Amino acid sequence: MSDGSISSSGDLLEFFRHHDRCRHWQISFTLQNLRDVRHRLSLDAEIERVGDSLLELHAMIKSNLYLKSRGAALRRTDDGVDHMPPKEGILILVEKERARRRIWTAARSTTAE
């Protein structure tokens, strides 16, 4: 929040409580409205952050940058086997994220009409 952005549910309250210009603002939120706004900001930001991370990770896997960058961080267990991240599990999550975004985009375009 130090840069002035609102990125989490707690940031909205901090913004209204501590921002210099807030003293001059006349904002009439009911408690329920404020809770709804905070909840939605929190969920949307978290979902997008996770989704973006998954899609970025998928792109790295496809280009093999991920495997190269993880080369130095391989964990060698007692049996002497190098263990890489579970690529198949990540790809399943990526497909779920893509499906979620398609549904979300369709829902937004339907409500906009």
Automatic annotation (TrEMBL):
Entry superkingdom: Eukaryota
This protein's name: Uncharacterized protein
